[in-house]
Amino acid sequence: MSTSTTPMTAKPRRELPPLMQLTEAAADRLRSLYEGGEAGKLLRISVSTKGCSGMSYDMNWVAEAGPQDETVKSHGLTVLVDRKASLFLIGTTMDYKTDKLTSGFTFENPNEKGRCGCGESFHV
Asked: Are β-strands 77-82 and 69-74 bridged in parallel, bridged antiparallel, or unpaired?
């Protein structure tokens, strides 16, 4: 009985969904911030444990990417995501909305299971 060894062929890797993406409105607003008062800085997004529902989005300006940051590129812009937050943010879309009394970045996160009544925090 002869045994032949057949080389194992690697399965093609399934493409992962993007960690995060920006809408056109978010990209336009971020671009104006990058070109204006926040020139030379990068937006860093993280998730902290606070708020009624347990988790909240945090955004800070940093001079450069840190060793624990993931780089997200969307619409020709770069946004940093804290690696510890990446599991909570996979597939999230960041938008910029303007209403009569407020304006700001919003997050549409498919991982959220619910939000608090005021909308400031979420849980997964």
From this structure: antiparallel
CA 40, 45, 46 angle in degrees (round to 5)?
140
59-106 pLDDT tens trace? 999 999 999 999 999 999 999 999 998 888 889 999 999 999 889 998
- Cβ atoms of 68 and 84 within 8 Å: the answer is yes
Q: What is the pLDDT of residues 17-42, one digit of tens each?
A: 678 999 999 999 999 999 998 999 99
What are the structure tokens assigned to 112, written together?
């959220």
User: Which two three-digit tokens encode residue 81?
Assistant: 């995501």
Report pTM: 0.77
The CA angle 111-52-124, to the nearest 5 degrees, is 15
Closest CA to 79 of 28, 43, 106, 109: 43
